[in-house]
Write a structure and sequence with these properties.
Layout: H1 3-10, H2 33-43, H3 45-50, H4 53-66, E1 71-83, E2 96-112, H5 114-182, H6 187-221, H7 249-252, H8 257-278, E3 283-296, E4 302-315, H9 323-390, H10 395-429, H11 434-441
Antiparallel strand pairs: 1-2, 2-3, 3-4
């Protein structure tokens, strides 16, 4: 599994966990995505639960394999009877109560059993399905962890922007009051500035609540009660062009766990169809038995005779009322359904990869526009402040410039967040979520 590689690149890292409130402290080490992944693998309860999914498939494989392996059993049978000793070659007169015992070992081993062989092949494919399902669940879990991680980053960035907004709100209020005192302003400007401050303060409370909730959700996924760490700031990291180059999509989807599982499901269904069809064929088995027969009487002590036999037995049904033919028909239908499902999974996988690529390009364009809007808004605020210095700026001009800059920063944060999520979904759609962490590997200053 590719998670072995992820574990390997993280093996030398350490980090400390305690309280969620310390996330704002710059004194603590930066909690990178790869460090979060390490914690998920080593401490995440959901991650550990996925490891138990293979146990059932392994048990069924052992059960199917047992039909082709030797079966050795010990047996012991005893019964009592009143018999004439003369019938047993004894000299005593009259009848005696005796115990007849048979003890030994019984051996059975399949020589030719085509049905059980097909069943074993199906069980082995089910093990592959289980392994692919584990990969899929873990891929989904890593995606969830990254989604929560990015949420924490996004809300932290929102709080930083709001803090800057509140500072500018207070500046607007002071500017409006100065203009009022000089007789050049109107009360509406001060009211508007106070309204902006109240709006940002309310939004600060709302975003902080969402940030704390996101921290708790991330902690729960990582298997920790609280995290004490500082996440790096949310910033744009464009995906290298090599990942976006045109490649054979049919080869790409072969890395996806769900595609691998659908392939194995088709093979397993075909083997179960063979199993049902071969149930009517003869089975050749090696049979052997060896042991001793002993007779114990009241007066003649104990005697025993060694015995043994061996041979080949043939087993096949003569008439089963259509049971096997019905099973064969049912398994044939399942095989057809599995084949159709495999084609649908392939089609869905190709669509998801194509969609993720398109989303990456669209979101990148949005981020580029948001960066331009920030520059425009900064320029607008700059000229508004220049006019303020010259005494010709109105309260409305200042507040509009302030609002436009705040909105530009918000749009930029949302765009970067959407781009990072698009990167996550792109790598997940290709079945190589580990590639996402390779991007961070070269940038982590703690390596």
């Amino acid at each position: 599994m590719y998670y072995f590689f992820i574990t390997f690149i993280l093996i030398f890292e350490t980090f400390f966990c305690s309280t969620a409130t310390a996330l704002e402290s710059g004194e603590l080490s930066v909690f990178t995505k790869r460090r979060a992944l390490k914690l998920l693998i080593n401490h995440g309860y959901r991650w550990k639960q996925t490891g138990t999914l293979a146990l059932d498939a392994e048990a069924k494989t052992r059960e199917a394999r047992s039909a082709l392996l030797p079966h050795i059993k010990f047996y012991a049978r005893e019964f009592g009877a009143n018999v004439h000793p003369g019938e047993l070659g004894l000299s005593s007169l009259g009848y005696s109560a005796v115990i007849v015992g048979t003890y030994g070992v019984n051996l059975e081993m399949s020589l030719i059993d085509l049905a059980s062989s097909a069943r074993l092949n199906a069980a082995r494919e089910n093990e592959k399905i289980s392994a692919s399902n584990i990969d899929q669940y873990r891929s989904d879990l890593i995606t969830l962890m990254l989604y929560q991680y990015l949420n924490v980053q996004k809300f932290r960035s929102n709080l930083d922007v709001i803090a800057a907004n509140i500072t500018r709100d207070n500046e607007l209020i002071r500017f409006a009051e100065q203009r009022l005192h000089s007789g050049m302003g109107v009360e509406l400007d001060r009211t508007r500035a106070k309204g902006l401050l109240a709006k940002d303060q309310y939004r600060q409370i709302e975003i902080r609540s969402q940030w704390v909730k996101s921290c708790d959700e991330l902690s729960a996924t990582l298997g920790e009660e609280h995290l004490s760490c500082t996440l790096p700031p949310l910033k744009l990291e464009l995906l290298p062009k090599k990942y976006l180059q045109s490649r054979d999509i049919n080869k790409i989807i072969e890395n996806r766990p769900d595609v691998k599982a659908s392939r194995s499901m088709t093979v397993a269904a075909d083997e179960m169809k063979k199993f049902a069809e071969r149930e009517s064929l003869p089975k050749f088995q090696l049979y052997g038995q060896m042991g001793s027969v002993g007779v114990a009487g009241q007066v003649f002590g104990v005697s025993g005779v060694f015995s043994g036999l061996g041979g080949v037995q043939i087993v096949f049904p003569i008439y089963d009322g259509g049971l096997n033919s019905g099973k064969a028909q049912a398994e044939k239908v399942k095989a057809i359904q599995a084949e159709l499902q495999e084609k649908q999974v392939d089609l869905d996988a190709k669509f998801q990869i194509s969609q993720s690529l398109s989303q990456l390009k669209d979101v990148q364009a949005v981020v580029s526009l948001s960066n331009q809007n920030i520059e425009i808004a900064k320029e607008e605020l700059y000229f508004a402040k220049r006019k303020k210095q010259l005494g010709s700026a109105s309260g409305l001009e200042m507040s509009n410039a302030h609002v436009n800059l705040a909105n530009a920063y918000d749009m930029n944060i949302q765009g970067i967040y959407a781009y990072e999520m698009a990167k996550v979904l792109f790598f997940k759609s290709t079945g190589q979520i580990n590639k996402y962490f390779e991007l961070e590997l070269k940038k982590d200053p703690h390596d």
